[in-house]
Amino acid sequence: MKNRSENKKFKLFNMNKDGKGVYEEENTKPTFLYFFKLLFRKFSKIIRLNLMLLVQFIPVFVFLYAFVAGTKTPTALESVYAPLYGISQIIPSASMTSFLDVQSIQMGVPVIHPVLMVVLTVLAVITAVTFGWFNTGAAYVLRGLVRGDAVFIWSDFFYAIKRNLKQSFFMGLIDFICIVVLVVDFMHLYNITGSYFNDVMYIMVCAIAIIFITMRFYMYQLLITFDLKTLKILKNSLIFTVLGIKRNIMALLGFVVVIALNVVIIFFSLSVGFSIPIILPAFYVVALLGFISTYAAYPIIDKYMIAPYASENDTPAEEPIFHDEEE
Predict the structure, then answer these.
(1) Inter-CA distances, 72 with 67, 75, 107, 190, Å
(2) pLDDT at 247
(3) Interval 201-228 mean pLDDT
């Protein structure tokens, strides 16, 4: 065990402050009721972890500002608009004008200036490089919170990154690329729905996105717990989306509830002229969603991969590293 100081002066912003851990003689079975008990006890640590993770989302905020609040130019959604407009100028008619009106729905496309393009590119590269490290550090801290371990947020966060520096980089790169591809596909297909083919493709992208979100419950937990190759981690994560389907569905429902409640609170607050709640989700939402997914995923990993190993070895190590038998 590491030697860590206790009884720090500032409780909220002290990243290395220890907690009470698991209460003696308490039923710690990962049930629905115990989730709220554990969440109440660990909520201050979840806030502190979330404050660390905010650094990761600075590029995201810049992207959102550029695409939402930046300069836009109106652009027709339908590719046939330009040739139809040309025909209407050569052969004007009432039917052509009506058909052109149907195809002339426009959307605002952000204007990307060269300087803004360079800034966004640099931010995208920084995010891609650090994405896996942030997720690995958070996964290690969240696992400790769910297991009831003594968690020292700052040191544990960077300990996990240092310990899995290379593999977490490549895992994060794969994760980041998949997220970007799914988001781009979702936004593109969302804007062109209406035909049978586009609707089917849109539904497929939504289904793949849900599966991938569920896989992410397990990817980084497997990375910090087991000595496995990256491809095998992805394979096992996909398998666990089926083996833990009940807990996965509950976690996804939890995501929906947390996001919906925050949206409702924000809209209600704005309707009465109270704007402070707009920034409140930035203090807890990301880490809270991570806590929900970890609480759902870790018992499944323990059941199928850790418990069988522990039963064979009687007294497993306090911080076990499980190796891939094929290596």
Answers:
(1) 8, 9, 9, 19
(2) 97
(3) 96
Is the pLDDT at 27 greater than 60? The verdict is: yes
- Listed ranges 110-114, 275-279, 289-293; the one with the highest mean pLDDT: 289-293
By C-alpha distance, which of 119, 108, 144, 86 is closest to 290? 144
The C-alpha angle with vertex 22 and arms to 236 and 284, in degrees rounded to 5, equals: 70
**Cα-Cα end-to-end distance for the chain:** 28
Tokens (6 digits) for 324: 């891939």
Q: What is the 3-state secondary structure (H, E, C) of 77-123?
A: CCCCHHHHHHHHHHCCCHHHHHHHHHCCCEEEEECCCHHHHHHHHHH
277 vs 233, higher pLDDT: 233
Q: What predicted TM-score, i.e. pTM, was given to this entire model? A: 0.78
**DSSP tag of 76:** E
Q: How far apart are CA 97 and CA 62, in angstroms?
A: 41
Q: What is the DSSP letter of 70?
A: S
